[in-house]
Amino acid sequence: MTEYKTLKLGDSFEYKGLIDVEGLYKTMDKWLKTNGYDKVETWNQEEIFESGKQCRWKFQPYKKISDLAKVEIRINVTLANLKDVTIEKNKMKHKLMKGEGKFVFDVFLCTDYENYWGTKPLYFFLKVIADKFLYRSYLDRYEEAAVKDAENLKKELKAYLNMQRYN
Amino acid sequence: MSLDIKDMMDPIMIRFRGVFSWEAIYSAVRNWFDERRYYYMEPKYKDKVSSPLGNEVELDMSAELPVTEYIKYHIEVSFHHYDVKEFDANIDGKTQKVTNGRFSVILKGWIEFDYSDKFKTPFEIKLRNFLMNVALKRYFEFKYIDSLTYDVYQLETLIKKNLKMKTHYNAY
């Protein structure tokens, strides 16, 4: 049985202004690839309303650290009231969108994701003892890495959106 | 008896509302399967008048590709359209048929091992399971499961491109 340990829940930021939606998606996808995450895009929605376009994306990228543990970051992105805008920069015209965005990050550490240790009560007991006492320091290290990854992704997105950030 | 690994990837869902060219999407997906030599099937095509707002269309596409004598890829694409209305529009000086409505697409990929039933007796099946779960587990993961997963993501990107969605990009 896979055990999910919640490391961060509902960590979010909001943005209002000019958005290059294509660029934002590319930035996120590239970041996940370069940092060794496997892509899992469970939901991608795009709807056109009178008030503008609305996009919703749900990602669940994961990174297998070992046969025992993997890190999963769940990202929910909602972009609303998007309207086309053309801006001029260095005598070049750029097509962008103007609207609001909300980004929510949840971070989990999943242990025994291949269900090796959940088949019998004795195995499960041994696994819990190992997690709590023998592998504690390893798991702590994984947890730190997972939270740091989520923070780095958040920073990357904020940097792309040109938001003020604090390091 | 063959061994199916159906939970190798989470299903991918695209939802869209707006104007799109159904013909373009259909032919793009069909061509994608044909280029990769998949055997293509259409188990369901339903078109019914459900409300004054438009028709409800359901289409299931299913394709399979025998990669080796032991491994077969399966891809399933399910379209479900609501409030579908077709009309002619002038795009770049040409009159084209476009569709207005909303729809969802679910893409799934899975692998069938030992599809030709070569491992038959209980002992042979035990040997096969040992190969699958222990000896060649990582090999199958890297060589076949990953490859099919990213193929499905490519197909997803193709559908997004034809819908002119903002997220038609795939880094993988």
Can you tell me about this structure?
The complex is a heterodimer of chains A (167) and B (172). With 167 residues, chain A is of the alpha+beta class. Chain A has helices spanning 21-34, 121-134, 136-160, and strands spanning 3-19, 41-49, 52-59, 62-64, 69-89, 92-111. Chain A has one domain (3-160). In chain A, strands 1, 2, 3, 4, 5 and 6 form a 6-stranded antiparallel beta sheet that branches. Chain B has one domain (3-118, 147-162). The radius of gyration of chain B is 19 Å and the shape is elongated. Strand 2 (41-49) of chain A pairs parallel with strand 2 of chain B, so a sheet runs across the interface.
Could you report the average pLDDT of chain B, rounded to the nearest whole number?
89
- Radius of gyration of chain B over alpha carbons? 19 Å
Low-confidence stretches of chain A: none
Class based on secondary structure composition and strand pairing of chain A: alpha+beta
- Helix count of chain B equals 3
Fold blueprint:
The complex is a heterodimer of chains A (167) and B (172).
Chain A lengths: L2 E17 L1 H14 L6 E9 L2 E8 L2 E3 L4 E21 L2 E20 L9 H14 L1 H25 L7
Antiparallel strand pairs in A: 1-6, 2-3, 3-5, 4-5, 5-6
Helix pairs in contact in A: 1-3
Chain B lengths: L2 E3 L6 E9 L1 H14 L3 E13 L2 E13 L4 E21 L2 E20 L8 H14 L1 H26 L10
Antiparallel strand pairs in B: 1-6, 2-6, 3-4, 4-5, 5-6
Helix pairs in contact in B: 1-3
